[in-house]
Amino acid sequence: NYFFCANQNCEFSIVEIQLVRIMSLICLGAWMFTSSMLMSVIFGIVTGVGTIDRLKKKATNTWHLSDDEALPLADVFGSGPLYTWFLPTDPFF
Asked: Strand, coil or helix: what is 28?
């Protein structure tokens, strides 16, 4: 085990162990950032409220007065076939 190898019988060098630890932390940070961005986008699609509008409503305590609706997926991905939603093509509106 690279990450917890700390005794004399360890077959990995100190440099390898430190590099694995650093890369694990970088991967964890990248995963947290990516999941945070995905959740923000999903929340925006489901509620129909963007990030700035959400922050403004939270700051002025008017979130409960919101009448925004969820965004139709055709507005996000276009009206083409379903299999093209995940491909980087130009959407048809």
From this structure: helix
